[in-house]
Amino acid sequence: MTAKLYRDECVVLRTHPLGEADRIVTLLSRHHGQIRAVAKGVRRTSSRFGARLEPFGVVDAQLHRGRSLDTLTQVETIAPYGRSIMADYSLYTCASVVVETAAQLTEDLEQAPTEYALVVGALASLATNRHPSGLVVDSFLLRALAVAGWAPSLFECATCGAPGPHAAFDAPAGGVLCEACAPVTAQCPSGAALHLLGALLSGDWPRAHAAPTWARVEASELVSGYSQWHLERRLKSLPLLERA
Asked: Distance between CA 49 and CA 23 in Å, rounded?
């Protein structure tokens, strides 16, 4: 195998038509970060691996390095999560938020193994209905932002470090704030919503499942605002999100 050929496990983030028969595929790989590659001829009915490049699927891909775009030369399906996700609109909107967030956070990274693992885990949970879809999305957003360096402070004051619990929450400040540091524009979420955020951030699913519906709604609003503030570009898929 030449130096220009390489192989990696990847998740398909999105695809775009190119010409009459090709597609540009954006992949998040386990070892090579985000990859943009040309899949030649995949829009033809005779394509050997066109169906294997559906969004949200996990594949074993062989690629040839190019100057601006790599070229996919071989694709094998590992987990066809896209089949069940795309059959359910609410799951589709949730998965769209996951992959759009991943695309933004890994755009300039040469390696992103932790983000890759989070994306695959979230898509697997959605495809198998392992957890409520809304909780999956909120957990992914919190954990993906934490890996990128924007973990919300949920106990200590995000400004002065004073131990909590605290009643105020401010996305620009980075989380909960003590009374002395909280601006007048800060939100005042319930303790149940903040506890749920902590469970979602740590992956404590039994505690997350036990949260009442009203706390889930409140926590989702906090996660949405926090994510939109800290990501460089607004998520186009977030306003379309349908939570089961």
From this structure: 12
Q: CA 138, 128, 209, 148: dihedral to nearest 10 degrees?
A: -30
Q: How far apart are CA 135 and CA 172, in angstroms?
A: 23
pTM score over 0.85: yes
Which residues lie closer than 8 Å to 147 by C-beta, 6 or more apart?
105, 114, 115, 118
- Rounded Cα distance, 191 and 11, in Å: 36
Residues 24-38 have a mean pLDDT of: 92
**pLDDT recorded at residue 66:** 82
In the chain the first and final C-alpha atoms are separated, in Å, by 46
Q: Tell me how far CA of residue 9 lies from CA of 23, 123, 203, in angstroms.
A: 19, 15, 24
Angle, alpha carbons 26-48-98 (nearest 5°): 25
**pLDDT by residue (tens digit) across 123-150?**
999 999 999 999 999 999 999 999 999 9
Q: What is the CB-side half-sphere exposure of residue 25 using CA atoms within 13 A?
A: 33
Tokens 């809304």 appear where?
A: 134
pLDDT of 17 reads 78
